[in-house]
User: Fold these one by one.
Assistant:
Number 1:
Amino acid sequence: METQVIQIDEKHMEQRLLKQAGSIIKAGGLVAFPTETVYGLGGDALNPESSRKIYAAKGRPSDNPLIVHIAKLEDLQPIVKEIPETAQKLADAFWPGPLTMIFEKSDRVPYETTGGLNTVAVRMPVHPVALAFIEEAGGYVAAPSANRSGRPSPTSAKYVEEDMQGRIEMIIDGGDVEIGLESTIVDMTVEEPMILRPGYITKEMLEKVLKSVGEDKTMMSDTSGQAPKAPGMKYRHYAPKGDLTIIDGEAEKVIEYINNQVPSLQKQGYKVGIIGTDATIARYRGDVCKSAGNRMDETTIAKELYRILREFDDEEVTIIFSESFDTAGIGQAIMNRLLKAAGHKILHI
Ligand code: TXA
Ligand code: MG
């Protein structure tokens, strides 16, 4: 299959191109598209055959449910059993935006889309290209992140091309994404809504709208033995080819520890990559040293993390050390993804 790549600028969206992309979805094909979090791999959420194709293109186990993307609030009701009052409040506060909510599904949503579950994950993204595309596609677009299973989620169309060339009909290039980490997922089917995956919308932000919000305990710790509530969180996503260890401690000690490891690892033939930050990166002596951004504004780190992990793969780095990040605000999402990438290898010094 030839994958067509088209450019759509969010400031001057060409309706003709959006229609073309939408008609591919309506005909049962797949189109990757930009959202504010990461690129999505879209198919018709109400067509079981489309969902099967998504799993095949990603190389993803089909028990891992997909998120259904909508473009307007009226489209929520037909695909869910009920909209709890708590969900209505969160939708008013955070939709469109990087929040996914889980509901009891209605009969219109096929089990192929929900990985066999009776619940469905729904999100209304804020990216103008995503919204216009979903409308043209018929209103319901199932989309996981547009990476091959096991690779970091794509934050630009170039990474989607790397992973999906020849596997899908079309890629909409809408430039680099804004946030860089996947949406916050909240389960609305339980008494106290529960965060299953941390993201840009934090617990503190949610608790400004609802009295209290819980957290899946497996989110930040080693999950061996305990199944996370979002099936996808059990897989070792985002795993770079190199062996990644997070070094947590006071900045000076971390720099010294990492630099001390480098010479003997190089002698053994390893290529050493280091993830630092703007303030520290010049002081590292690895083979490839990359700054993830500025600690004073951790959104910069969220935006660069997946790009860096992909670049380390391209540069065939075999050992990676990373600084550790705060777990407040977006930092919790950063550490959640980094811990997964590291298979929970973290050294406290
Ligand atoms: O930001 C995002 O959410 C991106 C963009 C494209 O919207 N999408 C995304 O999709 O990250 P994906 O498929 O890579 O991750 C979806 C996660 C998986 O961990 C999956 O197990 C969980 O959502 N999930 C989906 N439906 C669920 C359900 N009914 N119950 C529990 N977890 C669910
Ligand atoms: Mg994903």
Note: Residues 144-145, 153 surround magnesium ion (ligand 2) (CB under 6 Å).
Number 2:
Amino acid sequence: MPENLFIGKSLIGKKIEQSTRTLGDIRFIFEKGDQITLQQASRIAYNVSSYLPEKEGTPGGLYFGITNLYPGLVGDEYFMTKGHFHANRDTAEFYWGIEGEGVVILMDEQGNIKGEKMFPGSLHYIPGRMAHRVANVSDVSLSFGACWYSNAGHDYKTIEQKGFTARLKKVNGAPQLV
Ligand code: S6P
Ligand code: ZN
């Protein structure tokens, strides 16, 4: 038997690491993040189950994760992940949709931005040098898989300082990058 199992949207096993981001943790990514109340701030926005079989930084090793992103809006912006570039800019990643509907937002270092619809079965190749984040545009949880290099690293700082060049908003009831 393998040590870990990947069943539906759950990653189960001894060495699975769990991490959680509350709305308070990620308030800075939203245009109207300062309107998040104390009560809302403790709400979980997403959690990530990861299988990290190699030491962080190992060249050529792989990591595997499942993100579960809750539905909701902050103002007119959909709940989304923080988003990051890889610190090692040359490293790519795969995302794939498992449950729910969302948008993968990809931005290059010049700020050119695009969105790809995510749905069960959608596959998204994220080339190196592209910042990536996912927004949940459905009324149910959005689950997606990710596979990335153990020497990718995460550059959250660039996004914290500059943000993405467009926001995914609910405009007349539908998602739109504005
Ligand atoms: C890691 C991979 C994902 C994200 C996760 C949460 O390279 O892209 O596992 O870590 O979806 O997003 P973020 O932007 O908060 O790390
Ligand atoms: Zn990544």
Note: The longest helix spans residues 157-162.
Number 3:
Amino acid sequence: MLDIKIEITKNPKVLPGADNPLKFGTIFTDHMFLMNYETGKGWYDPRVIPYQPLNLEPSAMVFHYGQEMFEGLKAYKTGDGRTLLFRPDKNIERANKTNRRICIPEIPEEDFLQAIKAVVKTDEAWVPTKEGTSLYIRPFIIATDPFLGVKPSERYLFIIILSPVGAYYPEGLNPVKIWIEDEYVRAVKGGIGEAKTGANYVASLKSQVKAHDEGYSQVLWLDGVHRKYIEEVGAMNIFFKINGTVITPELNGSILPGVTRDSVLVLCREWGLPTEERKISIDEVYEAAQNGTLEEVWGSGTAAVISPVGQLRWEDNIMQVQDGGIGPISQRLYDTITGIQLGNIEDTHGWIVEVN
Ligand code: COI
């Protein structure tokens, strides 16, 4: 159990008004959580302090070799005023998996959860209540040793910041257009594709700019070896409903094991929908789009929740997903997942953790 010191800000900000659209990731709350690590000493000095800039050496290793990890989860406000977290254990488990992959010391799971709860509790007034909004929680760890050699750092900073957010995509729940990348790749098996670390996201920027310039919201990645099998969208995992079966790429080591991805699979199986986690090639999707059996496509992610996909572009081929509207399974998943998150639908899976 951590002994977390709490220092309350003397200059609280004005809370965003009810009409603020809470553009994703632009507003930060009054406080943040910090904890240091040093080899031989372990994790120490857990504290909640006013949100402020960090004081780091320009030589801090994170700036040079990118030894950092992050997570993303959300807190929700229920109608009766409780604050809920959705499956934080899965994020914490994945955080330590990322840590092991990139030589960052693990954080005991109960300490990680205690840290999240402490900072969320401190800024509980910032959890927005309007439909479609939540408090995005961004835990991350950075390597702080002032050293230019390449090796794991001896010192780290674990930080949690909070941001009240609306929809991740400006489209909201309206279907997004996705660009299928055939030039660059995001990750390969054996690399760091399944770790939640900034390097995977910087690798995606060039393609994302290209996709945006062409009018597409996001990039869908193909595998790095054959450039044929579908991987993920970067900010979300991807699902295809073809001829009645829900198909998503298997966790092959190069894609992120999404918490929402897992929740979608659990729900679809409960609803009696045939589901498959397997290799799925872009040719299979193209053929399904051609013969009319591509019934629905959606992405899943903490930030994105469920994001229906209305159109996919692969080389010069435009694949229209049905009439480009929100498919019935996408809508049902969105309603069910957000219903559970907001405490409006009974949590029969033990996914909800109350912040108290
Ligand atoms: C999340 O969904 O929480 C993510 O981490 C995606 C992020 C790149 C916005």
Note: The CA atoms of residues 226 and 354 lie 45 Å apart.
Number 4:
Amino acid sequence: MSVQVIDGRACARALKQSLEADVAGLRGEGLGIGLATVVVGEEYGSAAYERRLRRLADELGVAYSPQVLPADAGQDQVMARISELNADPGVSGILVLRPLPPHIDETAVFRAIEPRKDIEAVHPENAGLLALGVPRFVPSTAASCFRLLDTWLDSVGEDRADFYHRSLIVVVGRSNNVGKPAILLGYERQATVVSVDEWADRTTGIGRHTRWADVLIVAAGKAGLIKAEHVSENAVVIDVGINPAAGADGRVHMVGDVDHASVAPRVRAITPVPGGVGPVTDVWLLRNTVTAARLLAGHPTDEARPSLPTARPAPTFQEAS
Ligand code: NAD
């Protein structure tokens, strides 16, 4: 069986198209939509990320305001910048890029974001709503993983509900911004979900869990962590990782957490890096910004609607007599 490479760029294009109509409608009503990102210090990829978001925001007609503070900015400075953005009527969505320098209290910064502008659901109120299955915002990276899965299932003609109900989803990595939301979205789809973290790797090894996965979502930030011996032949692999690697030409390029060359020939489907999770994440962030603009204007949003079609009735099994 030849592997199917799940095309994140095509998925992102389709999502962007539906967003364009949405943005045009809101602008027609005179509603301003603006995204602000906050970076403290220089982090690998943050400049490239800002360039991508600026291009996307421009294409969609959304105002974009990247806020860069020096690495030695104090807690007060960061909190003051968040307050300004909260009060700015031109800003509908605020994204604070992680990691923040160690001297900054990240939780306090997240708590300071106006919840209706908190497009990555890092404020406790929004994280709680997500955990309860009634999200105000679905964090963009986890949303992207499931958007790719849903789109792929549609493309191969598999019933989404049926697939998730019988599937084991293994999520490698348990960060608040990627791993945990992905776990919650797996629960929301009524799948069986297993969370694997660094300690499993250090003790028993992760393969004893990942080898059973029907869906393997990898968000550890470790280049080439997942190799052929960690996956089953039926697995659908979603590679979230973005890691800098030196190419043969000496230039830095981007690789995932999955050793694509050895894993791809073995599995059912896989996302590439680049061109997989990333492009959909970017568009989803803009989608959340539009949702925030709606919320701030008192319009209804559609986040809390169930994401699954009605499930087929569960199969009944006869007890052996
Ligand atoms: P993080 O560092 O906050 O969290 C990583 C998680 O993986 C932690 O729970 C850690 O304990 C776990 N982990 C680390 N080593 C492990 C190992 N050997 N085995 C099992 N678990 C291990 O990182 P994050 O913000 O969750 O991001 C993860 C990766 O995803 C990074 O490479 C990041 O750049 C990338 N990322 C990509 C996108 C995208 O849109 N494609 C978005 C966000 C993050």
Note: The pocket of nicotinamide-adenine-dinucleotide is lined by residues 141, 172-175, 177-179, 196-198, 201, 206, 219-222, 225, 240-243, 277-278, 281 (CB under 6 Å).
